[in-house]
């Protein structure tokens, strides 16, 4: 724990502390800290600090690098001087760093940085380690320092500290170093300039460092370069700064790069959103329905092959881009999952619930999945799309690029669109400079293409849907592997914009005497699903056209419709012409002239009377038995269940090898009855939907922590208190309980009344253990005398 950070935290008022905690929700996640010293440890966590840095724009990161270069004497004034700007220009960005606990001021105004900051940059501002780290290393003894001092024209008397001070004074002074370089061999200045501006570490020819009179040997003898390996040399920080000269200032870019714009019509953008959003929901439903009929097999190496994608494209009428994007989004939304018995990806029970939701809810599920998806469906590498649903090694970075692109577009007004892709990439890189620049340039066009298909971007600007999603940010995105429903789906702004995006979807069609149905505008998902079941889609776009045929009507009857129910639903969507009514009635009249029966098992016996008795047995009615011949019964239930039911009824059947058992995929396991499209009734298990935990309330935690003083923890007293009060525990378990207190380890405790709890982060208070209880999700008190056992958690 950093004592400087703890001291600064004690000076913050409630408002400032709440602002800090709002920017660092990781520090108050459960089990939330109860004291400022615990909060300070969390704020200084290496991984957490690096995660925060990834979300910062360029100016605060430039300030952090400058602070690393300046070192212990860094303060606001010194920082402004090094950056070549006024203190007023630096202070707002410093406050931003303070609000993220990446830097904080000491009582004397000096700036302190989180420990992990230095680990991110090994060469801040392109500068190497301080000169002291080379002069005070084991590779350079006192005799070597004396030789270097004589070469620099300095006195060689005194101890090591005095020699280091003299050498540092010369090599850090630009004027004295310039005078020294006038005595250097030809080529030395150009050699040193390469290290000063393009270093600090460069590959070299090791032989030249031992060649008399060479620039390399002269630079090494005078302490300007240090060879860490035979072919690797480095230049110290102070030397490089002196060579760069007194006019050098570290880069500082407080203003984002200019992003050229072109005017757009907000109404046209809104219209395009209202076309794309219903279409995305409609196409996602079509893809899921298709996989419900034909499982989507995976390649041996993972992912869905090109051949299967093309089959889906042909059967659903989706474009290849739509199929790639929506298949991956549906998988992240847990609407698709691998089913080993089925041999591929099939819709999940969450899909059964999703298809019954209203259209805006279905759209938000897709948007939330895309927002946290760790792959880019439409990113081209070497001119080819990636394999659908194949792992992407840059997945986390791809998600961050998506967030940064939409956040950058959100800065444009609604009536303006970006003018060029290079300018957009540059603006995004200013907002998220730690992202890989080449990967950003490769993914940016793909992000925009995906966003257009989902109705988030139109005419190269954000739609209302896109702005609502960008306003949520990355904090509520959730993890791709998380089974919980992300908070994105319930965000009020996204709820409002999704309702608006789908409000213009058409719920009626124009039925023609030529057996066509035309929908002028984006069709509602319900209407599109109905027409897809009863007709063949011929075109889509500004107007969608379906054509009815005997085969398409028969397909609807196969799905569970009757002639009356199909005509009733079609009539609700528009006025039906007489030819269409005749077609439906005619197909229905001939429907079922020939039947094909599937049975679960066959029961055979030599006694016709016995089989007739079994067929009429009331207790066996649920088996669906029917007499095919005097000695043959057909049953609807599988063989195993039929066998058990016959035995329960007092018969003595024996199983025989046969192939009559039907493999039923996604068989319901109890639940409630729901009505599916086409009048079908299915049993749906109540989906186990886990909502994401609400984010911690910064104000509540700030109110509790404000003004709190760090309490010293006397480790030596822990064991004495536990040994005196936890008398039910053996010595080894008392030690484990001590680790719960002193090191915050996790353990399972049992009380004398039999209650158990998983605890961590304990404190001793007046004969009780006050610890975090995972089952309760809060801190609880456990009397030490009542703890009967402790085991490792």
From TrEMBL:
Instruction: Identify the InterPro entries for this entry.
Output: SAP_dom, XPB/Ssl2_N
| Highest taxon in the source lineage | Bacteria
Which GO MF terms are attached to this record? helicase activity
Record's Pfam families? Helicase_C_3 (PF13625)
Instruction: Keywords in alphabetical order, please.
Output: ATP-binding, Helicase, Hydrolase, Nucleotide-binding
Keyword Translocase tagged: no
Q: Which residues form the SAP domain?
A: 137-171
Q: Is the Nucleotide-binding keyword given for this protein?
A: yes
Residues making up the signal peptide according to the UniProt record: none
Q: What is this protein called?
A: Helicase-associated domain-containing protein
Species per Swiss-Prot/TrEMBL record: Sphaerisporangium rhizosphaerae
> What does UniProt list as this organism's lineage?
Bacteria, Bacillati, Actinomycetota, Actinomycetes, Streptosporangiales
